[in-house]
Amino acid sequence: TQTAPLAFTQHLTVNPKSAAERDAVLANPGFGDHFTDHTAVVDYKVGADGQGGWGNARVEPYGPIAMDPAAAVLHYGQEIFEGLKAYRHADGSVWSFRPEANAARFNTSARRLALPELPEETFIESLRQLVAADQDWVPSGDGEALYLRPFMIATEAFLGVRPAREVSYRVIASPAGNYFGGELQPVSIWLSTAYARAGEGGTGEAKCGGNYAASLAAQMEAEAQGCKQVLFLDPFNDNAIEELGGMNIFFVFKDGRLVTPALNGHILHGITRSSVMQLAADRGLKVQERKITIDEWREGVASGEITEAFACGTAAVITPIGELKTAEGTIASPGSGAGEVTMAIREQLLGIQTGVVEDLHGWLTRL
Ligand code: PLP
Ligand code: COI
């Protein structure tokens, strides 16, 4: 059932960054280094009657958050987040891609981390309100967008371990180009065998900060090996491939199959992943969500059966995987690694997002 979103008040900054500063950022946005002038905020509190409620929805100047040092998020990591992008179309309008899916996933994450659910209409309204205040920050360059980062933190000052009764929801925004920097090129991935990202009954399926903190030791190993991302396996299930630190993974087979690990409770339900599966099926590829092991990847490349591999996610869009480095040798993708199927799906997805390819699935929402 649709309910009306909370009404946001706008408290705009009197001293936003200058147009010159903003233009300098937009000329080379990078990823995650620069933030817009405002933030959207909604507060949650459990009252004396035990009922929780959201209120005080507002857009305010971007800046540091004052928080009690005992705030639960600082000790027990009660936090969740989302990531999606706002795209500038040729006529100047700004659109988001399947934001209702992010809103739903946010609430799935909230339930797992014992945080309150945020009404989906208010989630989408918060994006709209922030983009309205900061619309000059939406880039229009090739492959660029305004990355939106909604998140929820437990702000109650209390050191007992229980779900916080005071919580804050916020959205920040950051102009974004290629996540991996520079022009798009195939990336090298490191296979983590020392660390797993998630396990049975854990939080792998939730988008919570702790999963990313837990991935960093493996990510450091990857970087020491000259790689950009780390691949995690399920060591209790024949070394089945799960996902990368911040992206899902796909394999293109010579015979027209597109294979991605099945959602098993440990893997993030990627919205790019589900969109890629739909676009691939539309083009006549045979999409399989199933168990795929590291041995199958190695043998499939050796026999010529697997012709392409790619990573996908909001930040990564679709990025070809050039090679997987492992302690026991490298699995190199054939050719340069930027395969034909990978690049065709990438172009179609980006085309829909940026308004140059027809949105046949109704995935865009105007902000
Ligand atoms: N897997 C992980 C661990 C992620 O952090 C992300 C990024 O959000 C994804 C997969 C891809 O999800 P989505 O396509 O919804 O951005
Ligand atoms: C995203 O793609 O939105 C993520 O959260 C992944 C992270 C690598 C930035």
Automatic annotation (TrEMBL):
Record-level GO BP terms: isoleucine biosynthetic process; L-leucine biosynthetic process; L-valine biosynthetic process
Enzyme Commission number(s): 2.6.1.42
Catalysed reactions listed for this entry: L-isoleucine + 2-oxoglutarate = (S)-3-methyl-2-oxopentanoate + L-glutamate; L-valine + 2-oxoglutarate = 3-methyl-2-oxobutanoate + L-glutamate; L-leucine + 2-oxoglutarate = 4-methyl-2-oxopentanoate + L-glutamate
Xref: InterPro entries: Aminotrans_IV (IPR001544), Aminotrans_IV_CS (IPR018300), Aminotransferase-like (IPR036038), B_amino_transII (IPR005786), BCAT-like_C (IPR043132), BCAT-like_N (IPR043131), BCAT_family (IPR033939)
GO terms of molecular function: L-isoleucine-2-oxoglutarate transaminase activity; L-leucine-2-oxoglutarate transaminase activity; L-valine-2-oxoglutarate transaminase activity
Family the UniProt entry places it in: Belongs to the class-IV pyridoxal-phosphate-dependent aminotransferase family.
Name of this chain's protein: Branched-chain-amino-acid aminotransferase
